[in-house]
Amino acid sequence: MPQTPPKLVVLDRDGVVNLDSDQFIKTPDEWIPIDGSLEAIAALNQAGYRVVIVSNQSGIGRGLFEMSALNAMHEKMHKALANLGGRVDAVFFCPHTAADGCDCRKPKPGMLEQLAERFGVELKGVPLVGDSLRDLEAGLAVGCAPHLVLTGKGPKTEKKGGLPPGTLIHDDLRAFARWLLTGDGAPRQAGS
Ligand SMILES: [Mg+2]
Ligand SMILES: [Zn+2]
After folding, report:
1. Dist CA 137 CA 79 (whole Å)
2. Which residues are annotated as site, described as Stabilizes the phosphoryl group (predicted)?
């Protein structure tokens, strides 16, 4: 029997949900939502979608900030979302640096495999929204549908090219959610 994907959306964090910085997001004060992103998550929730974040946080491995700061950022995010009637069901993060050679740091699919196991779902066809190629590559390994947003590193990522076949490009998370929920605002296909 053909399987329909679970009503689940996987998001990268920095550059998708909140503004990114080359200096890393190290404190709750530096964690600033992208305009419309939290409303987009709430709209997805209201349509029955669970939303999960999968994020590389090598700033921890580099000693730039502590776990307590990461928890405080996510506390801020959860509170802001709750005020809008939205929620993120889980945040998976990789604290390692590239030099650690772990299997969770994207583009490796380790965090997505953890997510599939914890939620008891197959991720085939589940939309994964990212602003970097490595987000989409990690998703590709487990069959996620790749979506690039043009916030954060998105414009640079699009310019570099080499996106997975079938990648759809949206202005931001708000545009992605509107497209997923209503079909409005046709996204561009990578390479076209
Ligand atoms: Mg990112
Ligand atoms: Zn890792």
Report:
1. 31
2. 55, 106
